[in-house]
Design a protein that fits this description.
By secondary structure, the chain is mainly alpha-helical. It has one domain. Helices cover 69% and strands 0% of the residues. The longest helix has 31 residues. The radius of gyration is 17 Å and the shape is elongated.
Length: 108
């Protein structure tokens, strides 16, 4: 038997969207800093292609990670906490059971 996804109130959806926005800003700012460092270390053409490959991989990762769908926010939020882009206290306002699920998944 498949467990049905919990219902999210409009307030909880807004909290999740704000948390995603916060995490996205943190991750993209860190990426920009990292790219500036990598770009300043370029000394040959292979370095350019390596940087290009790295950017393509990061774009794929970030675009997929922040693809918010109402059916999967618990998994996305847990992943962002696990990766350090989000803090559990930034999910205040979600029901205790949703916060507990996010916390449990983040520990896995």
């Amino acid at each position: 038997m498949q467990e049905q996804a919990p219902e999210w109130s409009e307030t909880e959806k807004q909290i999740a969207r704000e948390a995603l926005s916060t995490a996205y800003t943190r991750e993209t700012e860190a990426l920009i800093t990292e790219i500036r460092q990598k770009a300043s270390a370029i000394t040959q053409m292979n370095d350019v292609w390596s940087l290009s490959d790295y950017l393509n991989a990061k774009r794929y990762d970030i675009d997929g990670k922040y693809d918010y769908r109402d059916s999967t926010p618990i998994f996305v939020l847990a992943k962002l906490i696990k990766e350090g882009w989000l803090h559990s206290d930034e999910l205040a306002g979600l029901t205790p059971d949703k916060r507990a699920k996010v916390a449990a998944l983040a520990r896995m």
